[in-house]
Request: fold
Amino acid sequence: MKSLVFFTLCILFASGMMATHITGGEISYDYLGNNQYNIRLKVYRDCGPNNTLGTGFDDPLYIGIYFGNGALFYVEQISFVNAVVTILPFGVDNPCLVVPDDVCIEEAIYQVTVTLAANAEGYDLIYQRCCRSPIIINLEVPQDQGMTCSTHIPGTNELTGDNSSASFINLPPALMCTGELFQMDHSAFDADGDELYYYFCQPFLGAGPLDPAPATPLGPPFTEVTWADGFSSDYPIESDPEFTIDPTTGFLSGQPTDIGNYVFSICVDELRNGQVINTVKRDYMIQVVQCGQTILAAVAQQLDPCVGYTLQFQNNSSGIATEFFWDFGVVDVATDTTSLENPEFTFPEYGTYTVTLIAQPESSCTDTVTTVVQINPENPIVMGYELVVPLPCDTSRVFTFQFTGENADDVTWDFGDGQSTQGEEALHQYDENGDYNVLVTAYNALCETTITQSIPVSTNSSIYGLNLIMPNVFTPNQDNKNQLLRPFDPLEETILPADSSIFSFFDEYDMKVYNRWGNLVFDSNGSAQGWDGRTESSAVKGDTYYYIIKCSLKCDSRQYEYAGYVTLLEEK
Reply:
């Protein structure tokens, strides 16, 4: 039981020690004279919600001091008591951006003065810590990869005289904003005036999950971190343009494109007389976040594009904007603007317009948005159709339906017999004779508008032939009885389809009527119609007239000709 308790305590202790709160570090030194050096270790930790255990800085921590030949000299233990802790600035200088308030990175500076006698190979100063945050996206299994901070004190074989290392001047940023250009002076100071050269370099592994804060850091050589696919020391952050650092000035510039946590390292080499005598490395994890805007222009989406000429606009701008400017995009018109917050505007005609909204137009943080609106009639569909009935002698009962309207994206035909189809043209065969109520439905997808119209359709027994005769007397007295001179079938009232006339069965038809003196008083001019006893100007007198009719019937290839006399009786 005691063994189990001890094992459990060891697990809890190791878990706390390997907490993933460390976000970076760097080590440098100043020569004080008389073989004394002030070692300065900067450690960065996450003090925000990502540090779920609330883990603080190590107390104590350990710096391994190695001879330049790789042999351990001794380990310096440094207490946290005198460490200087600073919360890092966000590093966002744009006053128009709003950064998340839950990002927090702290820097702790541990310092110690040590005496190191001059030797031929010099010394390596080494600090190691595990483990990195599991939310880092540019490393493979980042929670299993630690960090090594190291720097070198040149020996007498490398340098004549003394050396203080370079030291980065500015604090690293706590965050970067995605989609925003980031620029920073990442230069260093060198008390000896050595030439400095800046570049992206490889972060090193250090320590491990089983010994996350080793009391004896391991000496060189060091193992490089394992990058995730698509990343490297030269391309550590998803960015466009890519991040670059000026090798002479240390000016860092780039624009991150994707949210996430990224590890990168920047090295500065010290050169004296053209030879590299030391390198200082800043190993750091940066958080790329989505920053808000102090002013954000936004227009509510147009929900209904079919409301006629007048449209009510909804201003969805956010932030501190209190003034607005709208331009409704009417070409060659200067009066299509307003400063109202939620304006209503009447467009001159139907069509597409690009509307512009500027939030806080006079501010340095002004924001502009454009939106395209579609102005359509409240009911854009124009209904229309044509019905082609089968010939009287056609026994197939196949009808042709043709949509002739406008602005319909789809047309559905319900034929009244349980069958339906879609399309602007439809053919349908009825199985039985009868009367049918056909429903045509036109749909406009843009306006989500539907119109349905009823079409009466009648199918009757096919007519194969007509027994046409001509009357010898007619009375055009408007009583609807024998008032037209025309061919007729004595049985036409029973054999003709409803709502049809004898004239619908003619294919070709020409009728001329002459008076007793041979003068033409009526000419159908090729159209199927009867004579109502009138000339173009007035009614004729009762008398005997001579007619000639030449015609052919639908479904019948023969030509017919009728000629004879007819008496027009006037009503007394």
Notes: The first strand starts at residue 22 and ends at 33. The helical segments are 2-17, 492-495. DSSP finds two helices and 39 strands in the chain. The two ends are 135 Å apart (CA to CA).
